[in-house]
Amino acid sequence: MAGEHRPPPGTVVVGGTDVRDSSAWKRSVGWVPQRNVFDPGERVLTFVTDVGWLRGLSRAEARSAAGEALELVGLSDRKRSRLRTLSGGMKRQAMVAAGIVHSPDVLLLDEPTAGLDPNHRAFLTGVLRRMADRGISVLMSTHVAADVEDAERVLVLDGGRIVADSPVADLLAVHGSVDAAFRAVTAGGGAS
Description:
Layout: E1 13-14, E2 17-18, H1 22-28, E3 29-32, H2 44-54, H3 59-72, H4 88-100, E4 106-110, H5 118-133, E5 137-141, H6 145-149, E6 153-158, E7 161-167, H7 168-175, H8 178-186
Parallel strand pairs: 3-4, 4-5
Antiparallel strand pairs: 1-2, 6-7
Helix pairs in contact: 2-3, 2-4, 3-4, 7-8
């Protein structure tokens, strides 16, 4: 869905944009992969600015937007730091800033809280909630039950098939916990 690989047969359309229309898709979607993808020697502001430029912003727009994105994720005081000097949580924050620098309609995140300490996880969850409050659709893949509890809706895949698609509150009401719901819907049944 992030447009990084050629899609299989079929179509994926988000907000009226076919993911195969690479330029339009890249402008409308932000992508935060599980692994940090940056040059550790690069400065934080340069990294986020460059991503904005790659996503279609002019250099001036990208630099301004990078400053705003870094402010939103709490890294404006580290914008001149080299990425290698940041903690693991701060590196994730830089990746999220890069994912939102071009003001996407959709933000895709792969395991965004993996390896974060509780403080960085709580901070990042707050950032993602603010993104959603601004009208950005935030979609994440995760194995962290607490991440699911913080979401509005959950889609559970098992063997590449959707086995649950419902508001988190509904799954919790039926199963009591995210872990219990996951075990129930992947144990051969499926749930709505």
